[in-house]
Task: structure prediction
Amino acid sequence: MPGHPHGQLVFRDGPAMASSDNVTITIEGTGGHGALPHRAADPVVAGSAIVMGLQSIVARNIDPQQVAIITVGAFNAGVANNVIPQTATLRLSVRSLDRDVRILLEKRITELVHAQATSYGVKAHITTSAVTRCWSTTCARPNLLAKWAKNWSAPPTSRAKVVHSRAAKTLPSCLSSCPAAIC
Result:
């Protein structure tokens, strides 16, 4: 768990770590010369509008008491300073602690991206990594916390020696009673 020493087990009632979805947005425009921008459909300008619009989703669509994050971690387009590129690519990390919030984020991202693309005369394609799409919120139920705490209650000096063998024996049975829980 981020913020805690390596090797330390951390238990928390309810959601502990957010779901994580990797989203790629590819914007297809019409490239052209920088001196003739009126003959192009600029994916960089459209992508910039999409980035700004994405920032409003959490602020204006998600209950302030919920947790949601949309990070645009990469924006790639073109290779020359005087050429309008044909494509631009945005890479996002989308996180939440609640299944309904996660669904709303996906819906609003899709709506916003396509609306902005249309308004700039470009096309947008959205893909979500199949690998990360199944990484749901890490969530512990109170009854499981009590069971884990009991099984890992050894003193700190001996805990490290027994934690792996106890985890191997205990964790599968605990998780079988809480299959892939989404809070």
Remarks:
- Residues 154-183 have pLDDT under 50 and may be disordered.
